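ok trying this again, last paste got cut off
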Amino acid sequence: MSRLARLRTLARLGPGNIARVAMYRLGLRSGWHPVQRLRGAIPRGPFYRAAAGRAEIPAPNRQWRETALYFGWYRPPLPDQPLDWFANPFSDRPQPDASRDWWRIGDFGSGDIKGLWELSRLDWAVAWGTKAAHGDARALARLNQWLGDWAAQNPPYKGPNWKCGQEASIRVMHLCLVAWILGQDDRPEPGLVALLVAHLRRIAPTTSYAIGQANNHGTSEAAALFIGGSFLAGHDPRAGAWARKGRHLLEERARALIGAEGSFSQYSVTYHRVMLDSYALAEAWRRHQSLPAFSGALNARLSAAATWLFAMTDAESGDAPNIGANDGARLMPLTDSDYRDFRPSVQLGMALFHGRRAFDAGPWDDALTWLGIVLPEARATAPARSFDDGGYHVLRRGGALAVLRYPRFRFRPGQADALHLDLWHGGRNLLRDAGTYSYNAEGAEWFGGTGAHNTVEFDGRDQMPRLGRFLFGDWLAAEAVEPVHATQGGQVAEAGYTDGHGARHHRRVVLGDGHLTVTDRIGGQFGRACLRWRMAPGDYALGDFTVTGGGMSLQIKAEGCLPHLNLTRAPESRYYLRKDDLPVLELTLDGPATITTRISF
Protein backbone atom coordinates (compact mmCIF):
# COMPACT_ATOMS: atom_id res chain seq x y z
CA MET A 1 0.00 0.00 0.00
CA SER A 2 1.41 3.41 -0.97
CA ARG A 3 2.33 6.08 1.52
CA LEU A 4 -0.25 8.37 -0.09
CA ALA A 5 -2.98 5.79 0.45
CA ARG A 6 -1.96 5.47 4.09
CA LEU A 7 -2.15 9.24 4.50
CA ARG A 8 -5.60 9.29 2.90
CA THR A 9 -6.80 6.64 5.33
CA LEU A 10 -5.42 8.53 8.33
CA ALA A 11 -7.09 11.71 7.10
CA ARG A 12 -10.45 9.93 6.97
CA LEU A 13 -10.03 8.85 10.59
CA GLY A 14 -10.11 12.54 11.46
CA PRO A 15 -7.20 14.66 12.73
CA GLY A 16 -9.04 15.40 15.96
CA ASN A 17 -9.51 11.72 16.76
CA ILE A 18 -5.91 10.89 15.87
CA ALA A 19 -4.70 13.75 18.08
CA ARG A 20 -6.80 12.58 21.04
CA VAL A 21 -5.45 9.05 20.86
CA ALA A 22 -1.87 10.24 20.31
CA MET A 23 -2.00 12.65 23.26
CA TYR A 24 -3.42 9.93 25.51
CA ARG A 25 -0.67 7.49 24.59
CA LEU A 26 2.02 10.14 24.86
CA GLY A 27 0.71 11.13 28.28
CA LEU A 28 0.89 7.55 29.54
CA ARG A 29 4.38 6.97 28.13
CA SER A 30 5.67 10.20 29.65
CA GLY A 31 4.02 9.60 33.03
CA TRP A 32 2.25 12.98 32.83
CA HIS A 33 -1.31 11.84 32.33
CA PRO A 34 -3.52 12.81 35.32
CA VAL A 35 -5.06 9.34 35.42
CA GLN A 36 -1.66 8.00 36.52
CA ARG A 37 -1.78 10.09 39.69
CA LEU A 38 -4.96 8.50 41.00
CA ARG A 39 -4.83 6.73 44.34
CA GLY A 40 -7.63 5.17 46.33
CA ALA A 41 -8.48 2.93 49.26
CA ILE A 42 -10.01 -0.49 48.77
CA PRO A 43 -13.82 -0.23 49.08
CA ARG A 44 -15.28 -2.56 51.67
CA GLY A 45 -18.73 -4.10 51.84
CA PRO A 46 -21.47 -4.78 52.38
CA PHE A 47 -22.45 -3.25 49.06
CA TYR A 48 -26.13 -4.20 49.13
CA ARG A 49 -28.61 -5.07 51.89
CA ALA A 50 -31.72 -7.22 51.84
CA ALA A 51 -34.32 -5.99 49.38
CA ALA A 52 -37.29 -4.14 50.83
CA GLY A 53 -39.53 -6.11 48.50
CA ARG A 54 -41.05 -5.13 45.18
CA ALA A 55 -44.44 -6.12 43.84
CA GLU A 56 -44.96 -7.74 40.46
CA ILE A 57 -41.35 -8.22 39.45
CA PRO A 58 -40.39 -10.71 36.75
CA ALA A 59 -38.85 -14.09 37.38
CA PRO A 60 -35.14 -13.86 38.24
CA ASN A 61 -32.30 -14.53 35.83
CA ARG A 62 -31.45 -18.17 36.51
CA GLN A 63 -28.02 -18.02 34.90
CA TRP A 64 -25.01 -18.09 37.23
CA ARG A 65 -26.81 -20.60 39.46
CA GLU A 66 -24.72 -23.77 39.01
CA THR A 67 -22.28 -22.66 36.31
CA ALA A 68 -20.44 -19.51 35.37
CA LEU A 69 -21.13 -18.01 31.95
CA TYR A 70 -18.51 -16.47 29.69
CA PHE A 71 -19.46 -14.76 26.41
CA GLY A 72 -22.89 -16.38 26.44
CA TRP A 73 -21.69 -19.95 25.83
CA TYR A 74 -18.81 -21.19 28.03
CA ARG A 75 -20.20 -22.66 31.25
CA PRO A 76 -17.58 -23.95 33.72
CA PRO A 77 -18.76 -25.16 37.14
CA LEU A 78 -19.51 -22.40 39.64
CA PRO A 79 -17.58 -22.82 42.92
CA ASP A 80 -18.74 -21.57 46.29
CA GLN A 81 -15.78 -19.20 46.52
CA PRO A 82 -15.14 -16.33 44.07
CA LEU A 83 -13.38 -17.22 40.86
CA ASP A 84 -9.87 -16.03 40.08
CA TRP A 85 -10.22 -12.50 38.65
CA PHE A 86 -6.95 -12.90 36.73
CA ALA A 87 -7.55 -16.31 35.20
CA ASN A 88 -8.24 -16.37 31.48
CA PRO A 89 -9.90 -19.72 30.72
CA PHE A 90 -9.21 -19.22 27.00
CA SER A 91 -5.43 -18.77 27.26
CA ASP A 92 -2.62 -20.87 28.66
CA ARG A 93 -0.23 -17.90 28.83
CA PRO A 94 0.65 -16.29 32.17
CA GLN A 95 -1.94 -13.64 33.00
CA PRO A 96 -1.30 -10.20 34.52
CA ASP A 97 -2.30 -9.67 38.14
CA ALA A 98 -2.89 -6.61 40.35
CA SER A 99 0.73 -6.13 41.34
CA ARG A 100 1.31 -3.53 38.59
CA ASP A 101 -0.24 -0.20 37.66
CA TRP A 102 -2.82 -0.78 34.95
CA TRP A 103 -1.06 1.43 32.41
CA ARG A 104 2.06 -0.75 32.57
CA ILE A 105 0.12 -3.81 31.33
CA GLY A 106 -0.16 -4.61 27.61
CA ASP A 107 -3.40 -5.41 25.83
CA PHE A 108 -2.49 -8.73 24.24
CA GLY A 109 0.80 -9.99 25.67
CA SER A 110 -1.01 -12.68 27.66
CA GLY A 111 -3.47 -13.71 25.00
CA ASP A 112 -6.82 -12.06 24.33
CA ILE A 113 -7.36 -9.89 27.40
CA LYS A 114 -11.12 -9.96 26.85
CA GLY A 115 -11.11 -13.51 28.22
CA LEU A 116 -9.75 -12.10 31.48
CA TRP A 117 -12.05 -9.05 31.50
CA GLU A 118 -15.25 -11.01 30.93
CA LEU A 119 -15.72 -12.08 34.57
CA SER A 120 -15.23 -8.51 35.79
CA ARG A 121 -18.09 -7.13 33.70
CA LEU A 122 -20.29 -8.28 36.62
CA ASP A 123 -23.00 -10.08 34.69
CA TRP A 124 -23.21 -12.35 37.73
CA ALA A 125 -24.00 -9.35 39.93
CA VAL A 126 -27.06 -8.50 37.83
CA ALA A 127 -28.24 -12.13 37.78
CA TRP A 128 -27.88 -12.50 41.55
CA GLY A 129 -29.45 -9.07 42.04
CA THR A 130 -32.63 -10.30 40.36
CA LYS A 131 -32.64 -13.27 42.73
CA ALA A 132 -32.00 -11.08 45.78
CA ALA A 133 -34.94 -8.88 44.72
CA HIS A 134 -37.09 -11.98 45.23
CA GLY A 135 -35.76 -12.35 48.78
CA ASP A 136 -33.04 -14.93 48.02
CA ALA A 137 -30.69 -14.43 51.01
CA ARG A 138 -28.08 -16.79 49.59
CA ALA A 139 -27.87 -14.80 46.36
CA LEU A 140 -27.47 -11.56 48.34
CA ALA A 141 -24.71 -13.05 50.49
CA ARG A 142 -22.88 -14.37 47.45
CA LEU A 143 -23.26 -11.00 45.70
CA ASN A 144 -21.64 -9.15 48.61
CA GLN A 145 -18.96 -11.82 49.01
CA TRP A 146 -17.89 -11.72 45.37
CA LEU A 147 -17.93 -7.92 45.18
CA GLY A 148 -15.86 -7.72 48.34
CA ASP A 149 -13.36 -10.16 46.91
CA TRP A 150 -13.24 -8.27 43.60
CA ALA A 151 -12.55 -5.00 45.40
CA ALA A 152 -9.83 -6.56 47.57
CA GLN A 153 -8.11 -8.36 44.70
CA ASN A 154 -8.39 -5.38 42.34
CA PRO A 155 -7.27 -2.41 44.47
CA PRO A 156 -7.98 0.90 42.79
CA TYR A 157 -5.99 1.42 39.63
CA LYS A 158 -3.87 -1.72 39.92
CA GLY A 159 -4.03 -4.64 37.53
CA PRO A 160 -5.65 -5.41 34.17
CA ASN A 161 -9.25 -4.91 35.26
CA TRP A 162 -8.64 -1.16 35.60
CA LYS A 163 -7.01 -0.89 32.20
CA CYS A 164 -10.04 -0.04 30.07
CA GLY A 165 -12.42 2.85 30.72
CA GLN A 166 -15.22 1.04 28.92
CA GLU A 167 -14.82 -2.06 31.09
CA ALA A 168 -15.01 0.18 34.18
CA SER A 169 -18.12 1.80 32.68
CA ILE A 170 -19.88 -1.53 32.21
CA ARG A 171 -19.26 -2.26 35.88
CA VAL A 172 -20.69 1.14 36.89
CA MET A 173 -23.86 0.56 34.89
CA HIS A 174 -24.32 -2.93 36.31
CA LEU A 175 -23.62 -1.84 39.92
CA CYS A 176 -26.16 0.97 39.66
CA LEU A 177 -28.66 -1.35 37.97
CA VAL A 178 -28.43 -3.85 40.84
CA ALA A 179 -29.05 -1.10 43.40
CA TRP A 180 -32.06 0.04 41.38
CA ILE A 181 -33.71 -3.37 41.11
CA LEU A 182 -33.12 -3.90 44.85
CA GLY A 183 -34.75 -0.54 45.61
CA GLN A 184 -31.56 0.87 47.16
CA ASP A 185 -30.57 3.62 44.74
CA ASP A 186 -32.00 6.30 47.05
CA ARG A 187 -29.97 5.12 50.08
CA PRO A 188 -26.97 3.13 48.83
CA GLU A 189 -24.59 1.34 51.15
CA PRO A 190 -21.31 3.21 51.85
CA GLY A 191 -19.34 0.36 50.30
CA LEU A 192 -21.20 0.74 47.01
CA VAL A 193 -20.69 4.50 47.05
CA ALA A 194 -16.94 4.02 47.52
CA LEU A 195 -16.77 1.42 44.75
CA LEU A 196 -18.62 3.68 42.31
CA VAL A 197 -16.48 6.70 43.18
CA ALA A 198 -13.32 4.71 42.49
CA HIS A 199 -14.67 3.77 39.06
CA LEU A 200 -15.85 7.23 38.05
CA ARG A 201 -12.48 8.69 39.03
CA ARG A 202 -10.91 6.20 36.61
CA ILE A 203 -13.34 6.91 33.75
CA ALA A 204 -13.52 10.71 33.81
CA PRO A 205 -9.87 11.58 32.96
CA THR A 206 -9.69 9.40 29.83
CA THR A 207 -12.91 10.22 27.98
CA SER A 208 -10.92 12.10 25.34
CA TYR A 209 -9.30 8.80 24.35
CA ALA A 210 -12.73 7.16 24.22
CA ILE A 211 -14.00 9.95 21.94
CA GLY A 212 -10.96 9.46 19.69
CA GLN A 213 -11.98 5.83 19.14
CA ALA A 214 -15.27 6.97 17.52
CA ASN A 215 -17.01 3.84 18.78
CA ASN A 216 -19.00 2.54 21.74
CA HIS A 217 -16.21 3.33 24.19
CA GLY A 218 -17.48 6.90 24.14
CA THR A 219 -21.16 6.02 24.48
CA SER A 220 -20.54 3.51 27.29
CA GLU A 221 -18.37 5.92 29.27
CA ALA A 222 -20.85 8.75 28.76
CA ALA A 223 -23.68 6.58 30.10
CA ALA A 224 -21.61 5.50 33.10
CA LEU A 225 -20.72 9.09 34.01
CA PHE A 226 -24.33 10.23 33.66
CA ILE A 227 -25.87 7.32 35.57
CA GLY A 228 -23.09 7.00 38.16
CA GLY A 229 -22.76 10.74 38.69
CA SER A 230 -26.48 11.27 39.26
CA PHE A 231 -26.57 8.13 41.44
CA LEU A 232 -23.90 9.68 43.68
CA ALA A 233 -25.62 13.05 44.04
CA GLY A 234 -25.37 14.01 47.70
CA HIS A 235 -22.69 11.39 48.35
CA ASP A 236 -19.66 12.94 46.62
CA PRO A 237 -18.91 16.59 45.71
CA ARG A 238 -17.74 15.58 42.22
CA ALA A 239 -20.97 13.78 41.36
CA GLY A 240 -22.66 16.72 39.67
CA ALA A 241 -19.69 17.38 37.40
CA TRP A 242 -19.53 13.71 36.41
CA ALA A 243 -23.26 13.64 35.61
CA ARG A 244 -23.07 16.85 33.56
CA LYS A 245 -20.10 15.54 31.62
CA GLY A 246 -21.90 12.29 30.95
CA ARG A 247 -25.03 14.09 29.76
CA HIS A 248 -22.99 16.29 27.41
CA LEU A 249 -21.14 13.30 25.97
CA LEU A 250 -24.35 11.31 25.49
CA GLU A 251 -25.72 14.16 23.38
CA GLU A 252 -22.48 14.79 21.50
CA ARG A 253 -21.72 11.12 20.78
CA ALA A 254 -25.24 10.52 19.45
CA ARG A 255 -24.81 13.39 16.97
CA ALA A 256 -21.33 12.23 15.97
CA LEU A 257 -21.72 8.44 15.76
CA ILE A 258 -25.38 7.67 14.93
CA GLY A 259 -26.61 8.55 11.46
CA ALA A 260 -29.97 10.20 10.84
CA GLU A 261 -31.27 6.84 9.56
CA GLY A 262 -29.96 4.99 12.63
CA SER A 263 -26.70 3.33 11.53
CA PHE A 264 -23.89 3.32 14.11
CA SER A 265 -20.22 4.05 13.53
CA GLN A 266 -18.96 0.50 14.11
CA TYR A 267 -20.95 -1.24 11.32
CA SER A 268 -21.64 -4.09 13.73
CA VAL A 269 -24.96 -5.55 14.85
CA THR A 270 -23.75 -6.60 18.32
CA TYR A 271 -21.86 -3.34 18.94
CA HIS A 272 -24.98 -1.48 17.85
CA ARG A 273 -26.82 -3.36 20.59
CA VAL A 274 -24.22 -2.32 23.20
CA MET A 275 -24.63 1.31 22.15
CA LEU A 276 -28.43 1.15 22.17
CA ASP A 277 -28.55 -0.59 25.56
CA SER A 278 -26.26 2.05 27.07
CA TYR A 279 -28.56 4.82 25.92
CA ALA A 280 -31.66 2.85 26.95
CA LEU A 281 -30.35 2.40 30.49
CA ALA A 282 -29.43 6.10 30.66
CA GLU A 283 -32.92 7.12 29.50
CA ALA A 284 -34.68 4.67 31.83
CA TRP A 285 -32.54 5.93 34.73
CA ARG A 286 -33.32 9.54 33.80
CA ARG A 287 -37.04 8.80 33.96
CA HIS A 288 -36.67 6.89 37.22
CA GLN A 289 -34.86 9.83 38.81
CA SER A 290 -37.13 12.48 37.20
CA LEU A 291 -34.11 14.21 35.71
CA PRO A 292 -34.39 16.76 32.86
CA ALA A 293 -35.13 15.26 29.46
CA PHE A 294 -32.50 14.75 26.81
CA SER A 295 -32.77 16.81 23.64
CA GLY A 296 -35.21 16.06 20.86
CA ALA A 297 -32.24 15.58 18.53
CA LEU A 298 -30.83 12.79 20.74
CA ASN A 299 -34.19 11.04 20.94
CA ALA A 300 -34.57 11.24 17.15
CA ARG A 301 -31.20 9.53 16.66
CA LEU A 302 -32.04 6.86 19.22
CA SER A 303 -35.45 6.24 17.70
CA ALA A 304 -33.71 5.67 14.37
CA ALA A 305 -31.08 3.43 16.02
CA ALA A 306 -33.77 1.31 17.69
CA THR A 307 -35.58 0.97 14.36
CA TRP A 308 -32.30 -0.13 12.73
CA LEU A 309 -31.83 -2.98 15.22
CA PHE A 310 -35.51 -3.92 14.91
CA ALA A 311 -35.08 -4.16 11.15
CA MET A 312 -32.07 -6.46 11.57
CA THR A 313 -33.71 -8.85 14.05
CA ASP A 314 -35.40 -12.10 13.09
CA ALA A 315 -38.58 -12.09 15.17
CA GLU A 316 -38.95 -15.87 15.28
CA SER A 317 -35.50 -16.67 16.71
CA GLY A 318 -34.58 -13.29 18.16
CA ASP A 319 -31.22 -13.61 16.43
CA ALA A 320 -29.73 -11.16 13.93
CA PRO A 321 -27.05 -11.18 11.23
CA ASN A 322 -23.54 -11.63 12.61
CA ILE A 323 -22.38 -8.64 10.56
CA GLY A 324 -19.36 -6.69 11.79
CA ALA A 325 -17.11 -7.12 14.80
CA ASN A 326 -18.56 -9.18 17.67
CA ASP A 327 -16.64 -9.28 20.96
CA GLY A 328 -19.32 -10.97 23.06
CA ALA A 329 -20.42 -7.84 24.92
CA ARG A 330 -23.99 -7.54 26.20
CA LEU A 331 -25.35 -5.16 28.83
CA MET A 332 -28.17 -5.57 31.35
CA PRO A 333 -28.57 -9.37 31.62
CA LEU A 334 -31.87 -9.01 33.44
CA THR A 335 -33.23 -12.14 31.77
CA ASP A 336 -31.68 -15.52 31.06
CA SER A 337 -32.22 -15.19 27.32
CA ASP A 338 -29.46 -16.33 25.00
CA TYR A 339 -26.66 -13.93 24.10
CA ARG A 340 -27.86 -13.94 20.50
CA ASP A 341 -31.46 -13.05 21.38
CA PHE A 342 -31.80 -9.36 20.46
CA ARG A 343 -35.48 -9.06 21.35
CA PRO A 344 -35.02 -7.72 24.92
CA SER A 345 -32.87 -4.86 23.60
CA VAL A 346 -35.14 -4.15 20.64
CA GLN A 347 -38.30 -4.14 22.76
CA LEU A 348 -36.75 -1.81 25.34
CA GLY A 349 -35.21 0.53 22.77
CA MET A 350 -38.38 0.77 20.68
CA ALA A 351 -40.55 1.42 23.76
CA LEU A 352 -38.26 4.14 25.10
CA PHE A 353 -37.32 5.98 21.94
CA HIS A 354 -40.02 5.11 19.42
CA GLY A 355 -43.07 4.86 21.67
CA ARG A 356 -44.12 1.53 20.16
CA ARG A 357 -43.56 -2.13 20.96
CA ALA A 358 -41.64 -4.27 18.50
CA PHE A 359 -43.04 -7.68 19.50
CA ASP A 360 -46.06 -9.19 21.16
CA ALA A 361 -45.77 -10.06 24.84
CA GLY A 362 -42.98 -12.41 25.84
CA PRO A 363 -40.00 -12.83 28.18
CA TRP A 364 -38.25 -10.01 26.28
CA ASP A 365 -40.60 -7.66 28.17
CA ASP A 366 -38.97 -8.44 31.52
CA ALA A 367 -36.29 -5.76 31.21
CA LEU A 368 -39.00 -3.11 30.84
CA THR A 369 -40.76 -4.37 33.96
CA TRP A 370 -37.55 -4.35 36.01
CA LEU A 371 -36.90 -0.76 34.88
CA GLY A 372 -40.45 0.46 35.44
CA ILE A 373 -41.14 1.12 31.74
CA VAL A 374 -44.74 0.70 30.60
CA LEU A 375 -44.94 -1.31 27.39
CA PRO A 376 -46.75 0.74 24.72
CA GLU A 377 -49.92 -0.67 23.23
CA ALA A 378 -49.09 0.47 19.71
CA ARG A 379 -47.14 -2.04 17.64
CA ALA A 380 -44.42 -1.16 15.14
CA THR A 381 -43.76 -3.12 11.95
CA ALA A 382 -40.25 -4.28 11.14
CA PRO A 383 -39.21 -2.15 8.18
CA ALA A 384 -37.94 -3.27 4.80
CA ARG A 385 -35.78 -0.40 3.63
CA SER A 386 -32.27 0.83 2.98
CA PHE A 387 -30.15 2.44 5.71
CA ASP A 388 -27.87 4.33 3.37
CA ASP A 389 -26.02 6.23 6.09
CA GLY A 390 -24.36 2.93 7.07
CA GLY A 391 -24.65 0.86 3.89
CA TYR A 392 -27.41 -1.71 4.53
CA HIS A 393 -30.24 -2.94 2.33
CA VAL A 394 -32.85 -4.77 4.45
CA LEU A 395 -35.43 -6.77 2.49
CA ARG A 396 -38.40 -8.60 4.01
CA ARG A 397 -41.04 -10.76 2.38
CA GLY A 398 -43.23 -13.62 3.52
CA GLY A 399 -41.32 -14.26 6.75
CA ALA A 400 -37.92 -14.06 5.03
CA LEU A 401 -35.22 -11.49 5.80
CA ALA A 402 -32.26 -10.60 3.57
CA VAL A 403 -29.56 -8.06 4.44
CA LEU A 404 -27.09 -6.78 1.83
CA ARG A 405 -24.08 -4.92 3.20
CA TYR A 406 -22.49 -2.25 0.97
CA PRO A 407 -19.65 0.25 1.58
CA ARG A 408 -20.72 3.62 2.99
CA PHE A 409 -17.70 4.31 5.16
CA ARG A 410 -17.87 7.53 7.14
CA PHE A 411 -15.99 5.71 9.92
CA ARG A 412 -13.28 3.06 9.79
CA PRO A 413 -14.58 -0.29 8.53
CA GLY A 414 -14.14 -3.17 10.93
CA GLN A 415 -14.35 -5.95 8.33
CA ALA A 416 -13.76 -6.33 4.60
CA ASP A 417 -17.37 -7.44 4.00
CA ALA A 418 -18.59 -5.34 1.06
CA LEU A 419 -21.67 -6.90 -0.61
CA HIS A 420 -21.95 -9.64 2.01
CA LEU A 421 -25.45 -11.12 1.98
CA ASP A 422 -27.35 -12.65 4.93
CA LEU A 423 -30.56 -14.68 4.46
CA TRP A 424 -33.05 -15.75 7.14
CA HIS A 425 -36.25 -17.79 6.95
CA GLY A 426 -38.27 -19.66 9.55
CA GLY A 427 -35.93 -18.53 12.32
CA ARG A 428 -32.90 -20.06 10.52
CA ASN A 429 -29.87 -18.18 9.23
CA LEU A 430 -29.59 -19.87 5.83
CA LEU A 431 -26.73 -17.73 4.44
CA ARG A 432 -24.46 -16.36 7.13
CA ASP A 433 -21.43 -14.36 8.20
CA ALA A 434 -18.36 -15.91 9.86
CA GLY A 435 -18.30 -13.52 12.83
CA THR A 436 -15.16 -12.49 14.71
CA TYR A 437 -13.91 -15.27 17.03
CA SER A 438 -11.14 -13.25 18.71
CA TYR A 439 -9.17 -10.04 18.45
CA ASN A 440 -5.88 -11.74 19.20
CA ALA A 441 -5.95 -15.53 18.71
CA GLU A 442 -3.78 -17.09 16.04
CA GLY A 443 -5.52 -16.88 12.67
CA ALA A 444 -8.30 -14.62 14.01
CA GLU A 445 -7.65 -11.93 11.38
CA TRP A 446 -9.18 -14.28 8.79
CA PHE A 447 -12.65 -13.74 10.25
CA GLY A 448 -12.64 -10.06 9.36
CA GLY A 449 -11.37 -10.70 5.85
CA THR A 450 -13.26 -11.02 2.60
CA GLY A 451 -12.99 -14.82 2.50
CA ALA A 452 -15.18 -15.08 5.61
CA HIS A 453 -18.20 -13.46 3.94
CA ASN A 454 -20.83 -14.19 1.30
CA THR A 455 -19.23 -12.05 -1.36
CA VAL A 456 -16.52 -12.15 -4.05
CA GLU A 457 -12.84 -12.41 -3.17
CA PHE A 458 -10.45 -11.27 -5.90
CA ASP A 459 -7.02 -12.90 -6.28
CA GLY A 460 -7.08 -14.30 -2.72
CA ARG A 461 -6.83 -10.87 -1.09
CA ASP A 462 -9.04 -8.71 1.08
CA GLN A 463 -11.15 -6.01 -0.56
CA MET A 464 -9.10 -3.42 1.35
CA PRO A 465 -5.48 -3.72 2.56
CA ARG A 466 -4.85 -4.10 6.27
CA LEU A 467 -2.97 -1.32 8.06
CA GLY A 468 -3.27 -2.82 11.55
CA ARG A 469 -5.24 -5.11 13.81
CA PHE A 470 -8.35 -2.91 13.61
CA LEU A 471 -7.71 -0.79 10.54
CA PHE A 472 -8.14 -1.21 6.78
CA GLY A 473 -6.89 1.23 4.15
CA ASP A 474 -8.22 2.31 0.73
CA TRP A 475 -11.79 2.37 1.97
CA LEU A 476 -14.24 1.24 -0.68
CA ALA A 477 -16.96 3.51 -2.06
CA ALA A 478 -20.34 2.20 -3.16
CA GLU A 479 -21.41 2.50 -6.79
CA ALA A 480 -24.73 2.07 -8.59
CA VAL A 481 -26.74 1.87 -5.38
CA GLU A 482 -30.45 1.21 -5.81
CA PRO A 483 -32.38 1.36 -2.52
CA VAL A 484 -34.88 -1.29 -1.50
CA HIS A 485 -38.07 -1.05 -3.54
CA ALA A 486 -40.98 -3.30 -4.40
CA THR A 487 -41.59 -4.80 -7.83
CA GLN A 488 -44.01 -7.39 -9.11
CA GLY A 489 -41.37 -10.07 -8.54
CA GLY A 490 -40.51 -9.06 -4.98
CA GLN A 491 -38.30 -6.61 -3.12
CA VAL A 492 -35.20 -5.47 -4.99
CA ALA A 493 -31.94 -3.71 -4.07
CA GLU A 494 -28.54 -3.22 -5.72
CA ALA A 495 -25.02 -1.96 -5.00
CA GLY A 496 -21.48 -2.33 -6.30
CA TYR A 497 -17.87 -1.17 -5.91
CA THR A 498 -14.51 -1.03 -7.65
CA ASP A 499 -11.52 -1.86 -5.45
CA GLY A 500 -8.07 -0.29 -5.44
CA HIS A 501 -6.77 -2.85 -7.94
CA GLY A 502 -9.53 -2.16 -10.46
CA ALA A 503 -11.65 -5.26 -9.75
CA ARG A 504 -15.39 -4.65 -9.93
CA HIS A 505 -18.33 -6.36 -8.25
CA HIS A 506 -21.99 -5.41 -8.57
CA ARG A 507 -24.77 -7.32 -6.80
CA ARG A 508 -28.53 -7.25 -7.38
CA VAL A 509 -30.86 -9.11 -5.02
CA VAL A 510 -34.55 -9.91 -5.46
CA LEU A 511 -36.43 -11.40 -2.50
CA GLY A 512 -39.63 -13.13 -3.59
CA ASP A 513 -41.99 -15.61 -2.01
CA GLY A 514 -39.90 -18.62 -1.02
CA HIS A 515 -36.83 -17.63 -3.02
CA LEU A 516 -33.96 -15.13 -3.28
CA THR A 517 -32.30 -14.39 -6.62
CA VAL A 518 -28.81 -12.89 -6.57
CA THR A 519 -27.13 -11.55 -9.70
CA ASP A 520 -23.38 -10.90 -9.39
CA ARG A 521 -21.57 -9.06 -12.18
CA ILE A 522 -17.81 -9.56 -11.85
CA GLY A 523 -15.31 -7.68 -14.01
CA GLY A 524 -12.35 -5.33 -14.15
CA GLN A 525 -8.75 -6.13 -13.28
CA PHE A 526 -8.26 -9.52 -11.64
CA GLY A 527 -6.77 -12.91 -12.35
CA ARG A 528 -9.10 -15.14 -10.35
CA ALA A 529 -12.31 -14.55 -8.40
CA CYS A 530 -14.08 -16.68 -5.80
CA LEU A 531 -17.75 -16.23 -4.92
CA ARG A 532 -18.69 -17.91 -1.62
CA TRP A 533 -21.99 -18.94 -0.10
CA ARG A 534 -21.64 -19.80 3.60
CA MET A 535 -24.64 -21.99 4.37
CA ALA A 536 -26.49 -23.13 7.49
CA PRO A 537 -25.19 -26.34 9.07
CA GLY A 538 -26.57 -29.47 7.42
CA ASP A 539 -25.92 -32.14 4.83
CA TYR A 540 -25.63 -30.86 1.27
CA ALA A 541 -25.32 -32.55 -2.10
CA LEU A 542 -23.40 -30.92 -4.95
CA GLY A 543 -24.70 -31.50 -8.47
CA ASP A 544 -24.16 -29.84 -11.83
CA PHE A 545 -24.47 -26.18 -10.85
CA THR A 546 -26.82 -27.04 -7.98
CA VAL A 547 -26.54 -27.56 -4.25
CA THR A 548 -29.35 -29.00 -2.14
CA GLY A 549 -29.71 -29.58 1.59
CA GLY A 550 -30.19 -27.73 4.85
CA GLY A 551 -33.77 -26.88 3.95
CA MET A 552 -32.84 -24.98 0.78
CA SER A 553 -31.45 -25.35 -2.72
CA LEU A 554 -29.06 -23.20 -4.77
CA GLN A 555 -29.20 -23.14 -8.55
CA ILE A 556 -26.32 -21.48 -10.41
CA LYS A 557 -26.38 -19.96 -13.89
CA ALA A 558 -23.42 -18.24 -15.54
CA GLU A 559 -22.81 -15.99 -18.53
CA GLY A 560 -19.25 -15.43 -19.72
CA CYS A 561 -16.61 -17.40 -17.82
CA LEU A 562 -18.02 -20.64 -16.37
CA PRO A 563 -17.22 -21.12 -12.66
CA HIS A 564 -15.85 -24.23 -11.01
CA LEU A 565 -18.00 -25.32 -8.03
CA ASN A 566 -16.56 -26.80 -4.87
CA LEU A 567 -18.32 -27.74 -1.64
CA THR A 568 -16.00 -27.28 1.33
CA ARG A 569 -16.12 -26.27 5.01
CA ALA A 570 -14.92 -23.20 6.90
CA PRO A 571 -15.14 -21.77 10.43
CA GLU A 572 -17.79 -19.53 11.87
CA SER A 573 -18.01 -17.83 15.28
CA ARG A 574 -21.40 -16.74 16.54
CA TYR A 575 -20.09 -16.33 20.11
CA TYR A 576 -16.77 -14.74 21.02
CA LEU A 577 -13.89 -17.23 21.38
CA ARG A 578 -16.02 -20.10 20.10
CA LYS A 579 -15.53 -21.71 16.69
CA ASP A 580 -17.70 -24.15 14.78
CA ASP A 581 -17.61 -25.02 11.11
CA LEU A 582 -20.19 -25.00 8.36
CA PRO A 583 -20.55 -25.90 4.68
CA VAL A 584 -19.40 -23.37 2.09
CA LEU A 585 -20.08 -23.36 -1.64
CA GLU A 586 -17.19 -21.82 -3.58
CA LEU A 587 -17.47 -20.71 -7.21
CA THR A 588 -14.08 -19.89 -8.76
CA LEU A 589 -13.63 -18.27 -12.16
CA ASP A 590 -10.77 -16.83 -14.20
CA GLY A 591 -12.50 -14.04 -16.07
CA PRO A 592 -15.44 -11.62 -16.16
CA ALA A 593 -18.85 -13.20 -15.72
CA THR A 594 -22.41 -12.71 -14.60
CA ILE A 595 -23.41 -15.30 -12.01
CA THR A 596 -27.06 -15.77 -11.05
CA THR A 597 -27.79 -17.74 -7.88
CA ARG A 598 -31.38 -18.65 -7.06
CA ILE A 599 -31.86 -19.78 -3.47
CA SER A 600 -35.15 -21.57 -2.81
CA PHE A 601 -36.34 -22.21 0.74
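PB: full thing came through this time. The longest strand covers residues 503-512.
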